[in-house]
Amino acid sequence: MAYVHRIEVRYKNDPRLTVRTNRIRSLGFPIEELHVIDIYTVYTTSCDFSPEELREIGIQLANPVVQTFTVDKATVAFFDSAIEVGFLPGVTDNVGTTARQTIEDYIKRKFEPGEAVYSSQLFFVTGKLSPDALQNLATTLANPLIHRVHIKSRAEYGTKGMDVVIPLVDLHELPAAELVSLDLDDPDLIRIGKEGIVDSETGQRRGPLALDLAQLHAIRDYFATKGRKPTDIEIESLAQTWSEHCKHTIFASPLDDDMPKGLYKTCIQAATNRIRQERGDKDICLSVFSDNSGGIIFDDQYLVTHKVETHNSPSALDPFGGALTGIVGVNRDTIGFGLGAKPCINIYGFCVGDPEKSPALFRGKDKSNPILSPRRILDGVVSGVGVGGNCSGIPTPQGFVWFDDRYVGKPLVFAGTVGIMPRTDGSRNLHEKQAQPGDHIVMVGGRVGKDGIHGATFSSEALDPGSPVTAVQIGDPITQKKVSDVIVKEARDLGLYHSITDNGAGGISCSVAEMAKECNGCHVFLDKVPLKYPGMAPWEIWISESQERMTLAVPPEKLDEFMSLLRRREVEGTVIGEFTNSGRCVVEFNGAVVMDIELSFLHDGLPVKHLRTTPPAPVSTTPVPPCPDNLDEMVKEMLSRKNICSKEFISLQYDHTVQGGHVLGPVQGTGRVQGMATLTKVVPGSKKGVGLSQGIFPSYSEIDSYRMAVACIDTAIRGLIALGIPLEAIAILDNFCWCSSDDPGRLSQLRHAAIGCYDGATGFETPFISGKDSMFNDFSGYDEQNNRVKVSVPPTLLVSSIGIHPDVTKAVSLDAKVEGDLVYLIGETREECGGSEYFAHLGCSGGTVPDIDIAAMKARYKRLSNAILHDLVASAFPVTHGGLAIALAKVAIAGRIGMDVTISGDMRPDYSLFSETLGRFIVTIAPDKKRSFELAMGYDAFLIGRVTGKSLQITGKGFRVAVPVSDLETAYKKPFGGY
Amino acid sequence: MTQAVFSSSTKVSGEELIPDKALIMSGYGINSEMETKEALLRAGMDADIVHINDLIDRKFRMTDYRLLVFPGGFSYGDDTGAGNAYANRVRNNLWNDLTEFLEEDNLVLGICNGFQILANLGLVPAFDKQYNRDIALMPNRKGVLECRYVTIKPAFENLWTKGIERIVCPVSHGEGNFSCSPEVLKRLKSQKMIAFTYCREDLRPADGEYPFNPNGSTADIAGITSADGKVLAMMPHPERAMEFVNQYDWTLQKEILKRKQLPVPSESINMRLFRNIVDYFR
């Protein structure tokens, strides 16, 4: 027997009504009003609720001061059409879960398996919309990949209202492992690699394994020597472990004739090794590349970790869910570092298309399966990272957005987390971990469903109405917050486990097999894994990427205490097996062994691939128009460019003050300008702080990817130098997001960028401590005329920096401070406009990309951070995208005060204003510090003017720019004013 | 079990700790317990951070404490309304302990999510000791979470606001839009229960104007007390700006002080609120 009740909650006067309505109107829908009703559908089978109980439940789910509710009765309202948006079967429903917990608390009993509360939202639209427009409106309110939508006219709604929908998961699969024959011709093997194993139940392919022929041969040969066929779970497991995502084959494979160890070992790891060796006892690295994050010394007591991840493909399909999963996923890389670090700062980065354009691109033929609009993607990813960090109580001060139309098909979503942990607990180093034979394998956190199986490769059409959604995972930050709290605030310090790692890509197949390396074996009982719904096949349970899960190695004598702690924190934990020293990864399901592979083959059986590069075609150079007459206007136009202007609407949505460590935040100065770097205290009572910055120059990479990489490193470092962080206290991280990486031309660009990374890191002596790559960021689909279209992202490298500020009270912000202060330009300007924002504004390609003398910069940066730490500087700001004029404008806007400067040289006026020469800063100082500052900086500092008046005035040979600071501020803040 | 990841910075506090202790609630997504404890410690009061389930399991007793704090956070992810689900958990499991605690000469502080929880529990305004839901914190007018520094000032002097001219600290909430009926507002005013209002930097009223009033709150209300004055509930986070360097414009203030050859303080003005609490028990 099933009992269903529907509770509808609405505001008497919804405060968000105007903003919501205006937003929808700004997207082109001529509506009058858009109201939202929260719906809770309570579904039970064991027993029903009385009317009094239902009324009380309604009271608990609504706020009687400002809301009303109905039980099993349609909300009465004036409107023209109603759109209900709920989740598809199997999609994580956080609101429904909370409502269920509230009801359980009130009725003092738990829901039975299968019983649930489902949340949905009912939108009442007033205003006449055509059926097509109404459908379009529904697609902006919902995502077909995860949502179900039901539309009714006012007449259809009548007095009965919307239909009651129960999104039950309905599975008919045979939950058993199957044997798979690999004794096939090569074309058939290739098909298995590309499209997956044939499911004996449905006859359909299960989705791409991304195994190539050589890898499939290696698997076939391995099982031939064992004298048996592999099971489906064994093949799926090898596909996960050997995937580009996990093994980074492009970065690991021998390249050309001179890099037999591959790019990663030759360029990234070698740089760090060399720096550590040369630094000797001044080495700041504690744990690099080997763990979920990289760890460096904070002080004698603490270490800090950093890790930046990407979550690109899922974010293209479901921007909100993809970005949310990205940020909570990288939080787990912190919790899973060593024995568990506490996440203390989040960072973000988005590379997206112009949100004001709507390119017509489709994943399918005949205008089917259109891409999401850049605006939709931007809104979704901004919100996803925000909700993830905000709900988890982790400040998100630092980040960037980069706009380029080549990101329309595949946006890039970067998410990073800094963690803090004590270096020891008195008896052991907390950054070290070691699972022991005999330890229980305990899975902690969320349950396992079909989410994230084969990642984003499933298309929505393949789903029938009862199928759970497999393509995307949706994070539940609160479940994870509970997991995080119980681990890093309690269990770790009680010494209850030997090892811990995150369940990310590949789920437990990767996390357990990875930890098994520490003790050389594992034995898993898959039927013990708690599931979201019954009927999953063993291979699905093994590789599912359901979120919010950590895997721990708990010694038998600590198990009771650990499980009891989890129960009291309402965190689910399950023993799913045991770590062994058998040298094998053995998996059982319902009493049968379904997987038995030697760890050595699982981890190292991957055949070696030799990659080759060929130089790409050079970029053509277009002629540059003459210098514009009206440079005042040009300065304002440049300030309004999306890559330069204020994106404060993001900073405001992101809690950047929680944990109480805000020192220099995402916006600075009275005029609120977004800085290049932020500074946060992570240990109360310590003078030290963590500075974060980044460098990204996708527009340079087609011209010169080597210089692009050096520019990224220089800029990431320079952001921290301007806060006063010494060069010796800075470490960096790399995130390569490339395209078509099997193309020898793209590989060549990658090779040059990696060499740039080596030269940059070793030149500045800033070690790489962690990195990640994503090698195939290409969109393949169709345009409106059914022509095949491929849109590849520009080769993109994000270099993130982390530095330890020795005394945050000495830090400086970017804003000009006091009338009469002196303005300095540190470093000279050269004609380096190739790939610049200015050339992009003029529509010019080609040109010279900035180059630097790293040794000279190193000396300059040491002098400047030193001058800041000696209180000689009032403000400092690096000159980056947009050049000198933009940096001066930002310093003036932030201080809401004018500057009068004169620049020397014979360069074309517009080039001198907008060239992006690296290594430069704008610094302001108190006049009485002139002598000591110039002494400290040496020949590098050029006194160019004063802080004065209400305008920015720049005089050069044959030109003069003079713009009121208030006009600059308007230009800087206008583009995203309505977001 | 108490949680102590970061030992407190006793070196910062020059004060002796008073014997009475504070109970700081945690669990289910509350996230500001550490900095709240730090603020109290610096003001001279020790605190235990206790998971709500350990109170329900009787591992800790509310009545062993003098100050009960509901800190900021995102309990239950704000699902079903900010603070609502956590308030339900308190009401359904700890109501007797809570009313017993309120009978004694004790104080309750709720910040941000804590305010939302207290409002849903009816601990504010609690006219005539009736714990009804009389006020609400609705979604912000802009419909999204907003994190920014605000200036607030006391509307009336009471044990909490004594000697405070202003507090400059962050708000960070999606649902802080104070709402109540005209009758309730009248009583809040006549019984001097409005603790803090949002204002401009020069202390003139915000008059509902964004961003000074960041969320659309009725009468610029940023915090209220209970009718008996023993409960303070506020949306802004003074515990997030304990130090001089936590203030938004500290780099400018520091330059101005340096030019006048005046000393640069290490503590922020906001600590006065926590000292007032500790003074009450002293």
Automatic annotation (TrEMBL), chain A:
Subcellular location: Cytoplasm
Name of the top EC class for this enzyme: ligase
Residue ranges of every copy of the PurM-like C-terminal domain listed in the record: 436-588, 819-951
Recorded GO MF terms: ATP binding; magnesium ion binding; phosphoribosylformylglycinamidine synthase activity
Top-rank lineage group of the source organism: Archaea
Residues engaged in binding Mg(2+) 1: E309
Residues annotated as catalytic: H245, H311
E.C. designation(s): 6.3.5.3
Keywords: ATP-binding, Cytoplasm, Ligase, Magnesium, Metal-binding, Nucleotide-binding, Purine biosynthesis
Phosphoribosylformylglycinamidine synthase linker domain residues: 205-248
Biological process according to GO: 'de novo' IMP biosynthetic process
Pathway: Purine metabolism; IMP biosynthesis via de novo pathway; 5-amino-1-(5-phospho-D-ribosyl)imidazole from N(2)-formyl-N(1)-(5-phospho-D-ribosyl)glycinamide: step 1/2
Binding site for ATP: K307, D734, G771
PurM-like N-terminal domain location: 296-421
Catalyzed reactions: N(2)-formyl-N(1)-(5-phospho-beta-D-ribosyl)glycinamide + L-glutamine + ATP + H2O = 2-formamido-N(1)-(5-O-phospho-beta-D-ribosyl)acetamidine + L-glutamate + ADP + phosphate + H(+)
Recorded coiled-coil stretches: none
Entry binding sites for substrate: R332, Q473, E545, S546, Q547, S774
Subunit structure: Monomer. Part of the FGAM synthase complex composed of 1 PurL, 1 PurQ and 2 PurS subunits.
Function noted in UniProt: Part of the phosphoribosylformylglycinamidine synthase complex involved in the purines biosynthetic pathway. Catalyzes the ATP-dependent conversion of formylglycinamide ribonucleotide (FGAR) and glutamine to yield formylglycinamidine ribonucleotide (FGAM) and glutamate. The FGAM synthase complex is composed of three subunits. PurQ produces an ammonia molecule by converting glutamine to glutamate. PurL transfers the ammonia molecule to FGAR to form FGAM in an ATP-dependent manner.
Family recorded in the similarity comment: Belongs to the FGAMS family.
Protein name as annotated: Phosphoribosylformylglycinamidine synthase subunit PurL
Organism: Methanospirillum stamsii
Name of encoding gene: purL
UniProtKB/TrEMBL annotation, chain B:
Top-rank lineage group of the source organism: Archaea
Entry keywords, A to Z: ATP-binding, Cytoplasm, Glutamine amidotransferase, Hydrolase, Ligase, Nucleotide-binding, Purine biosynthesis
Single biological process term from Gene Ontology: 'de novo' IMP biosynthetic process
GO molecular function, one term: phosphoribosylformylglycinamidine synthase activity
SUPFAM superfamilies: Class I glutamine amidotransferase-like (SSF52317)
A single GO cellular-component term on record: cytoplasm
InterPro entries reported in the protein's UniProt record: Class_I_gatase-like, PRibForGlyAmidine_synth_PurQ
This protein's name: Phosphoribosylformylglycinamidine synthase
Native source organism of the sequence: Methanospirillum stamsii
